[in-house]
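fwd from M.: "can u put these together and see what the complex looks like"

so here's what she sent:
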Amino acid sequence: MVEELKQKGITDAAVLNAMGEVPRHWFIDTALDAYAYDDRALKIGCEQTISHPSTVAMQTQLLTVASGMKVLEIGTGSGYQTAILCRMGARVYTVERQKGLFDKTSALLRQLGYRAKCFLGDGYQGLKEVDYGPYDRIIVTCGAPEIPAPLMAQLKTGGVMVIPLGEDEQKMLRIEKGGERPDQWKVEQFGTYSFVPMLDGRNFS
Ligand code: SAH
C-alpha cells in the first residue's frame, strides 16, 4: 500500500511511516479484510465509508502535522484517519455526527490505545460547547457545502485547515489562516474527490 501511495505522489516521510504502521484492517469489518490494503473506500456501516488510503494520505500530507500539535478532525467514521494523526504524535480531538459510529469507534480507538478525544455532535460547529481550541490544524473528512465559519474561528492564526468543498463532488482545499478576515486566508486547491456529505440537522436522523 505504501509503495502505491508513493507512486500517487505522497512524499512526506512522516505520513508514509504512519500509514505503514497503522493496520487499516483494524478499522473495517473482517468480511472486507481482503480489500483492506487496496486503494478504495469501503463501507463501515451507517451508510458511511472509510476513505481511500490515498485520500487519507493526501489530506494528512496537506495538513503538515508536527508532533504535539492540537488537531481537530470532523468525521471520525472508522477512526483510521484519527489513528494516523495519533501515530504522528498529534493531540487529536475528533467529532462524529452518527451515534452508532461514535459509540463503536470511540471504544475501538480506546481499545487499540489511541488517545484521541472523541465527541458526538455536529462538526460543522466544531467543538463549541467543550472548548479545547484553538487548534493548530483542522481536517474535515466529509464533503462540506461551504467553509464552516465556526471552524475557521476555532483555527489558530497561522493554522491550516484541509477541507473537501462541494456537494456532489469536492475540491480539496488547503486553507492557511493568516488572520481573522477571509482576505487574509491563503486558499489552495488540490484535486477533485468524492466524499460522503457533511450532515446537518435536516438530513440527520
Ligand atoms: N475519517 C473517516 C472518514 C469517514 S466518512 C475515516 O477515515 O473512516 C465521513 C464521516 O463524517 C462519516 O462517519 C459521517 O457520519 C461523518 N459526518 C458527516 N457529517 C458530519 C458532521 N456534521 N459532523 C461530524 N461528523 C460528520
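replying to her w this: Residues 99-112 form the longest helix (14 residues).
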